[in-house]
Amino acid sequence: MALLFDYDSVKYSPNNALALAYCAKWAYLDAPLAQAEVSKQLQTNKFQFVNIQSSGTQAFVAGDSHKIIVSFRGTEPSKLQDILSDIRLMQVYHALGNVHGGFIRSLDAAWREIFTIIRQFQDNNQTIWFTGHSLGAALATLGVAKMLEFSYPVSGLYNFGQPRVGDKKFAESMNKEMAKRYFRFVNNNDVVPRVPLRTIGYADCGYFLYFDKAKILYDDLSIWTRLLDNFHGRLEALGEKGTDGINDHNMDAYIAGISKNMDKLVK
Question: Which domains does the chain show, CATH number per domain?
Fold first, then answer.
């Protein structure tokens, strides 16, 4: 059965959360397979894959007469540990605030091509949506920031396992400009949303949505309740292959969480 998409939604939509979570997953596929999935499940008739070999930046843009979706590929699971231990921390200037230098360089390498495709696809005033998982979520956030910088409207940003992208000013700017249109999902002990550290000048942004170890979705979870749930999640993961923080980063875990909470309404 095809996925539903509320293309004119002005608030959180479980249908859009699930559809964009799948788009974040499909961004890891080769272009023909990604196109087949998107066109089948979301009835899109426009598709273009972007692959910048020099920077390793990959994304697809898909669309139809109602919507345009931009989905960035994230960190390959086999390389995640290397990324966490060798992340570039230097911030650089952006109009909305300072941002992670490595992330913005990756986006800049592909942005002209991506933005050109968006403009080519937008022939019916379609709504525009961004998504990504892991590094892809960081690039999606910066892509939306680029759109905002030039007053180009974005209807929604749904991110999964997103690392921190910029400083407090950047976070405040994004939260103001994308209020209740930018949703940041974190699955239990997922380690990636905890880097880069706040202590070196990074801040969280987006409307925080959290899955506990039982995949129950919360949008008003206190920090102490979350820490306790993290602890229980780590206890249950003892003896499992890999670490809980890495396992919880898996995109399939996010899809499972959203699927379990399709009746959940956020504030």
Answer: 14-260 (3.40.50.1820)
